[in-house]
Amino acid sequence: MRCRIRKADLFASLVVFLVALPLCVGVAIASGVPAELGLVTGIVGGLVAGALPGSSLQVSGPAAGLTVLVHEAVDTYGVQALGVLVLGAGLVQLGLGALRLGRWFRAVSVAVVQGMLAGIGLLLVAGQVYAMGDAAAPASGPGKIAGLVWLPGRVDAGALSVAGATMAVLLLWPRWRRGARVVPAPLVAVAVVSAVTGVFGPDVRRVEVRGLVDAVRVPGAADFGRLTEVGVIGTVVAFALIASAESLFSAAAVDRQHRGPRTDFDRELMAQGAGNAVCGVLGALPMTAVIVRSAANVQAGARTKASRVLHGGWLLLFTVVLPGVLGLIPVAALAALLVHAGCRLLPVREVRVLWREHRGEVVVLAVTAVAIVLGNLLEGVLVGLTLAVVKTAWDISHVHVETEDRGEAGIVVRVLGHATFLRLPKLLDALEALPHDREVRLELGGLRHVDHACAAALEGWAAARGHELMATSRSTT
User: Domain SLC26A/SulP transporter, which positions (predicted)?
Assistant: First the structure.
């Protein structure tokens, strides 16, 4: 039995390695850093985070979901500051895990998370479409989208053909299920296109290889001094919170795919923090748990954490033995790979379901995505969270006013539900519409909650009615 489990984990580790290799390189290029730094993060995700307790089958590494935020940080503070940003985020994650706050990430509105992924997907696709044609992309999100109008006249035909061929393989290869189980589509697409362009193809821009040792940069004292800057602190917090949310939501999704041990969210958060701390010391990209690699791990038959640790070992072996292979990969092929990944981040099916059942959630999702595209990732998420809280408050603030005319005995008005400031106009309209020449008895026993604004408004209305009002209440304010 032990031998069977070891074989399953060994095979799964090879599958995950083949999936992770092109994605690690592609995410690094899209983030504006050397390709080797993406591989460093993948290695740390396997050897460090993979060996720690938390989730048994979840695989970590550089993720497309952080590409936009990392690129903004590199543009603002420089690649030399990336290490201290990631290290700070890792320490924040360790603190959150030590305080047992990991489980609270599950309380984030699903619509906000899906909106975050949609916004990231839109920006990723909009940015990488330029790279598919070896064209320079505008810096801002709105600029990327607006620039698509003039893009056709700026693209390189050879690079675009390489990207198109890559996309075709990505879409067609999974249809051969037997082959797709053995060799993942991303690796096939990048390998085939790299080989063909290397022998017969056009002269296109390729990945620049510097070597693993040259790419790694340990943060210095001057870098740590930047942690006093407000913008840097905000970026660190954004890295930590978004990476944590993505990792823990991924863990919940992976748990639904297998029958093994469930994820300990606090321990998994600390494992992610430890991995990011190591990535920061090496000056590499931030890491998160990645659902694509994790799903490949489960589907390949992994049984224990050995598979994810081994995948990190395979990445390290490849980087040491065959680093020159990276220089054969066209940038346009990696851009097509990331466009494909960005499209998969768009929650099209989820939006259809939500639109039929919870249209308010679709509004939260859409506003979050648009805010990310127009602003930045952190601002968009904060806007989405705020809107989700307001929507929830509105949903639970149901006030129903019942009126009973008892003739000479007067009018009995019963107020039921939750009286909050959000429903105050409706409540006052109903009360002020009552006739002034009749005795009114206001019963508030059906209210489950009355906030201060409504309580003050009711008292003011009662004072204005004078002796005509007889109020009874069994609710608390």
Answer: 7-368
